Fold these 4 entries.
Entry 1:
Amino acid sequence: MHSYRNLIVWQRAIQLVVAIYELTEQFPREEIYGLIAQMRRSAVTIASNIAEGRHRGTKQDFLQFLRIAYSSGAELETQLEIAQRLPKTKRLDYARTTALLTEVMKMLHAMIKTLNPRATKS
């Protein structure tokens, strides 16, 4: 099996992690154990699950880890939405982070559909 490092979705997920870290560095210090930790963990989990799934033994294992990565992306979407509504963080620029997350989610969705063509969920 080829390395996860060759997967464009993994490369974009790593860019997303960096973007999340850069964004959350601008958050108030009191969020270090709250929203900052949650957002960073969600972003890291996306990239980590892509990598782990790629090195599992079967296509079904890979598919399961892609689903976990996709779910972590949904968590991060929610956390970004919350951050954009909070008084102390709503004025930050979320464009780059949101665009990267959208791109990663679309890629994961396409990969999941390709690996599981019988899936009816979209």
Entry 2:
Amino acid sequence: MTEYLSFRRAFGITFGFQCLIALVLFLFGLFAFVKVLTHQEEGYAAMAFREHLGVVLLANLRILPSYLIVTVAYAALAFPFVWRRKAMTDVGRCVGRFRKVRLLAWMVLVNIGLYALSLGPFFSRSPGLLGGAAQYLEAIAPGLNLYALYHLHLLEIATVGFILVCAVAAVVYGRIAWHFWKSRPRQRWEQALLAGVLLAIGGGAAWSQVTTASSKTLSIPTSRPNVLIIASDSLRWDRIGAHGYVRQDITPHIDTFANEATTFANMHVATASTLESWATILSGQFPPTHGLRYMFIRKDHADSFAQQPTLLPKVLNDAGYETIAVSNWAGNCFSLVDMGFSRRLTSDVQNFNAFITEATVWAHLLFPLYFSNELGERLVPEVRSISSHVRPAALADRMVHEIDRTTDAGKPFFGVLFFSTTHLPYMASYPFNLKYVDPNYHGPHRYHIDVRVHDLITTGFDPELPPEVQQHIRNLYDGTVSEFDHYVGYVLGELEKRGLLNNTIVIVTSDHGEDLYDPGSTLGHGTNFLGGDQSTRIPFLIRRPGPSGEPLQAGHRIDALARNADIGPTILDLVGLPIPEAYEGVSLAPLLDGQVTSLHLPVFGETCYLFFPKEKALVDLAPEEKERLYTLSDARDTLEVDKDFNNNMVLKKQFHQGVIDSKDRMIRSPKFKLIETPTKSGEPIRRFYDMEADPGQRKNLAQQNLPEMNLLRDLLHRYWNEGQAKSLRLPAAPSL
């Protein structure tokens, strides 16, 4: 029995060593977690440890199973390379001090090698790891270029090495199992059980790294057409190749889709903020009517909106549709507010628990390295709320799975597949993160936009970045656009495989655009209307199947103004359902069918909640104008945690009306744009632009007091103060 006991002792020593490493890493993670919290200037550490200590402790304890899994896996992989029977036996008998030191050194080297090789198959699966690892390594290796991992193919080499390690381990365990099977017939049940456990662990690890859609091929068409909206947060209209972008390789799948779709070239949102924008789309109402005016809403606002019986998903539910929302942290709005979907596979992100989860996960780097996958989401479901945990492939497959489930039941579906890919911090997955960046760039925001919470709240985004940094930021953003395009192509391909494309209305769009250091702007969205239409103008491509499945109006472009409040009414009209009287938007079907060339719709807009002082958002205003601004305190003073609303961050009640009153307002006609910025005196600062002659909004015509400005000012007043959005139309005058 000596040999069998030495094997068990040897494995026990190896496992014990891995447990020691795991303990050290866990304690280091706890230290890093405390350090992260205590370095927040906004009092988050005090709030966390004083009011949410249970949440803090639970978040860190829930990471422990991941350490156990890694410990077992590394013990199994390391053992074949450290098992020397005599040395291990001597160590087990507490003899041979030199041998123990030598064995310890060898085990350390083996583990370093294993961790290095494991970067190959795991590192590229988490986009956030590139920037996260850079922050950890910056102190000891300033200027380290982690892009070299890709350019020098080091990750591919490491992957091959890791596979070889697994193969060697499999051979060793196979020989051990065969030896015991032959020599220990009475213990075969133990060996079979051990083999089953190892296979289960290996199979589970492999499964966690692979996400594939169902292999289903054909579905039975339903009586009503299906509807699928594929959207990405903060996607600009001008970043689509088919819209004339200079990088013609950026969106090949969307460009192909555009050839079969109708493109709205002037679709605008009422608020360039996710919650408010989706509320407008799904209610068919403008923000002053539907009531969701900022992202940090209170529970009574969420409940009031959810009670509306005419929300688009509710109307479709009543008509027999399965309504599905699939998103990650960007689709927090679908979890925050019940918008009527019968199936919600979405995340929470703006509650305090999510903040603690993010701090915990990034403190324990082992978790994002090995568990940015389905297994990680099962261990810690809250990880879906983390901005770096994007997994767009998993989102696409979840929607495909939901479509299969729905069509198997013989029901039509209305789906919203909403990606966070193009949202700040512009963190694309490999290889899209390398597609447009300069490999020799060594400036700030190297791997993604890196902004500390304190800096964002107090100063906003830096308005004076050098041109090369601004261009690098645009390059990062373009990589995310290309990644979104990839998944648009994937989902469309899955629909085609199932025979659903010719019975499905497909829309590719966004919730709002994005500022990318356009004239007079910095980064983000919804903070102002300066620099052009880049924040409110969104792509909107709609493919409609005809009676025989062929796309209607394929490749057609519509230049007339349209609003995201018109999307809901249009969908209902296209599927043959009546449009509720409560809707303020109108159906765009007459434009789609070519009956008219314009519906004379004015575009209305308002800015969103500001984390930082308003003068930081309006960088184009003169100093004397900034002095006149109606401003509020920043997020440190205006937000609080509502324990009765799932620990969500909410706006304090006393700031509700102030946030609304301080909003910039905008009205847009085909030719002109009028912006009104509230001031302390009550008389707004007006900016009036000829968008045909001056699309970058560099020449303010407000002082000319043109009749067109006065007409738009009257319409904006009636929209904002009198609730007449539904009836307001632009005159058919060509000069407007």
Entry 3:
Amino acid sequence: MPRYKRLFAYLKPYVPQIVLASFCTMLVAASTLLIAPLAGNAFKAIGDKDFQFLNLTAAGIIGLYFLKGLFTYGQEYLSYHVANKVIIDLRQELYRRLEKLSLDFYGKWHSGEIISRMMNDITTLQTTILTSFTAIVPQTILLIGLIGYIFWLNWRLSLLTFIALPLIVQVIRMFASELRHISERVQQKSADITSHVQETVSQIKTVQSFTMEEAEAAKFKKENDHAFQITMKAAQILSTQSPVIAFLQAIAAVGIVWYGGLEIIGGRLTLPQLISFATALGIMTDPGSTLSKSFTVFQQGMASAKRIFELLDAPVTVLDRPGAKPLPRIAGKVEFADVSFAYEKEPVLENINLTVEAGEMIALVGRTGSGKSTLVNLLPRFWDPRDGAVKIDGRDLREVTLESLRKQIAIVPQEIALFRGTIKENLRYGRPDATESEVINAAKAANAYNFITELPNGFETEVGERGAKLSGGEKQRIAIARAILRDPRLLILDEATSSLDVETESLLREALEKLMAGRTSFIIAHRLYTVEKASRVVVLDNGRIVEVGTHQELLARGGLYQYLSEIQLKNKA
């Protein structure tokens, strides 16, 4: 579907406001059109020395401008209302789409690119919609009315006026085509700059610790300079367009004065009529110039619309199947049956067969890239397996609704990222209806209550962006408390690799034991304590399960697990 047709679909809910705005537009055009004949009448009154008629004409012109102002207010206010509502609807739909898109999408797209399309392109499109309502539509109506009026005055003079019109239209089309292409490049470069800034800010600690400020600044300058070059190409087109069109209009104006004089000499036109004609043409220069610039804005908006619709059209690869049923509260038995998975065409998991009984604690061990994270990401259906099936309590996860599945799972990631807001708001994330006592009990169970209450504002303490105001251990305990409050039947934990002080480590162990008690748990293990406590240890290598057993059993076998354990012990030593 063409982009402009898709945009029109967003206007349908606001047809009443559009109709009313259009009515105001008609009245604006009508009041403007009446000014030209009144101006001619004023000069006629001067020639006839009819001062009473001159006074009435002057009052009529002032009255028309007053009415035009009122109708313009109504037209522009309603236009702003519709345009802003459409943008809000579009932004909301885009946000909802981003929430539903699967992890494979976010693996391909830079966050800065997404943010740029969400903000910059939406803003550009908003300007385009406003321009369409406040400029293109009313000015087009006015222009059509003025053209009809001058043809009524003198069709010969009007034909001469429009000799240059096809050339002007062709020039506008040529500039519009060039500008549409360059606008797409400008928006893309804006997205690149946004990505660079977002990446630098999010990794500022790394940038500063490696003293890479100058190098990053140099890369940013290169991006900025490239953006300047592209923007100046757009400026060159814009700067050339207006004088070229103005020159063509000037040629037409000289021709009109010359031919109009001949018509008066020949008795086919009166001076008041020529003045009315010239007044109408003078009024026409404004809609003509406005439309020229508006079509430029329109082309920029269409370039942004293309980028926005690319996001809206991005496929959701994991979604509820037709007929999917809600998953009742689970016991927690998990089965991987002949599961294989690949990113694009790159195999990651091959023929995984594993049955985990309800309440078991499974430690996943393996080299980097062995498939541990991918395996646990199949449980909440961040991805679906290429072959085989993942089942909970005997039910294929693809046959149940995503919401009912994910509500029974809690994930404590390796890198804890809290949301901007208070500690209480972060604890309630996922369970906003939790009571005050439930929040406090969860904090106590996670050994987070003491440090929270020691803060000046307690549970109302602002955590900062991504929890920047808290230590790593504090953030981990809040994440554990959040998981406890959710009361999941299935737990996924990716242990942090960073070292913690002895006291914090002890508090975390105790909190994790409370969290895992009675729940089926999958832990990507990095600590000896974890694998010793696990019901079973599952060792992965190159996407396959190579060993399964307890910590002691696997050490006795002398396989990969023993080798990895020895390396870890040597590194600690």
Entry 4:
Amino acid sequence: MKGLILGTLFALGGLVAFGAEQDSDQEIYYILQKGFIKVAGTTNLFDFKGQAVRHEGQLVEKDGSYTGKLLLRFVDLNFDLPGVGEVLERADYMNDKVYPTISIDLDHFTPAKKPTEIKAELAMHGATRPITIATQFEYLPPVVKVTGSFSIKQTDFNVKPYRAGLMKVGDILDVQFKVFFCEYYTENANLKISAETAAKLATDDKISVLMEKGFFGCEEIKKNLPSGQK
């Protein structure tokens, strides 16, 4: 069993303890601040896109089946056009002061089977709708790499596409992401991966895996652990 987890949640680039010890029959994979989450749309005059500067979420594995969550905060989206933040705040559009996040709950899936799509539920603007995400998985223990894409209609979530003067925002938003999740062990941490796997993660994805006495997992996670758990 992973030791000294204390039910930590990897969020906002750090590990925040919330008290309960993790169940012994499940494994938690914490999201890394690697990869990207992008949102893109169109207007009748130009296209626009934004990218999240922080990633939040986790995967939970139990009995070979995985569930997961991704959380995207509007405040963490950097857009390529000025003034988008002010538009998102408008009460007659996204109203992100009242509805600050987009959350994606991933249904049961098995990364080792490399599913080409998975079912999920997306919550935005007070509405929740089922979606299907086109996916690619790569499982390089202790890391799960997930690449995915999907499109949504704003009107499906009770959002009227923004317009100003002659400019009209299209109804469809496209989301693309490449995210990495990593598990770690502090008890019985005598696990090893091949030099080839470690080199691939370091070279391709800039992820460093530590195989030390008392710790096996990603270096980024160890850096964010509370001092008593390092």
